[in-house]
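note to self: dont lose this again. the chain is below, predicted strucutre after it. 266 aa total, dont forget to put it in the shared folder this time
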Amino acid sequence: MACLALGACGSIDLDGKIDPVYGVSASPRVVADGDPVPRGGGGYKVGKPYMIGGRTYVPAENPNYVAEGTASWYGRDFHGRKTANGEIFDMTSISAAHKTLPMPSYVRVTNLSNARSIVVRVNNRGPYVGDRLIDVSYRTAELLGFSTRGVAKVRVEYLGRAPIEGSDDVRLASTLTTTGKPADLPSGSTVMVASAKPFVPEAPSARTVVASAPSREEAPLPPSRPYDLGMAAAGSPVSVASAGWSAGAAPVSGLGYAGVPADGAR
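---
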């Protein structure tokens, strides 16, 4: 935990370790370091209210969602692990974790200190440290210009549902703006505008991109974060049922989002 708090400590094996404050453990690593990380493979999730660290969160699809707050980033220690909707986290992808937005979905993230703006794929839950608003991948933090600082003040705006088949990182990276103009998806995008309809698979296929292996040289981690919020292995017990997450002793190999039905239903 000291290495997680101070940063610059290299890679840490988080498998099976329980965060003492949040009572959750990292999801299992399913892709070895250096191997290509497949895109897509998850499901649509919204989820029921859940509790982490004594605070209750209520996932919802809100087409008018706009919020400002602190962004942080996560990288090598969570690279190759399952995300909350069943995808696999890649620190070189254009992705993010959010506590309540649907997964996968697209949001516009704008760094308020330098006006950089980019469209990002939300496919994970978190962050839960303090009042942080969003946790972006290391690559996203690089593009937004705060990877060396660890945190930044940002604005997050919900754009709509993302295609389930893949993250389309090349296209998302191309949405980056550095002149103060809000980032947006290209015309003809497969993003679907939120509505009152159930959150179900409806989007057509998107291009799949395989990212290169993450760099060995990485900036210090943002200070004091809980472990990654992935999915529990099949059959893993949920010992903190009221919290909606799996936790406990050695048998828990990952972190289960019990608030999200396995079949993807709302």
